[in-house]
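thoughts on these tokens:
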Amino acid sequence: MFYNIEDELVSLRIKVQPNASKSEFCEVYGYDAIKIRIKAPAVEGAANKELVKFLAKSFKVSKSDILFKTGQNSKIKIVAFPLNDAFKEWIAKTKEI
């Protein structure tokens, strides 16, 4: 499973593809990560900043609420943020696909 909910906190395992034409969710990568394309290049933390901005907008949380648990310098990352209704709706849509 690419996400884990514990104590009202979501941990999301992400496979990041930098330098894409636009930032977007893709498919589930294997069984344990969600692939996200990010339009920023993987240079000087630009892709991580864009990832935080994309996740904050997608799940309606502040950028400061998104924390990197692992993988700041890797393509596979685990980020954590507060559980909210926007994430629950996204998971429901994702399971339908």
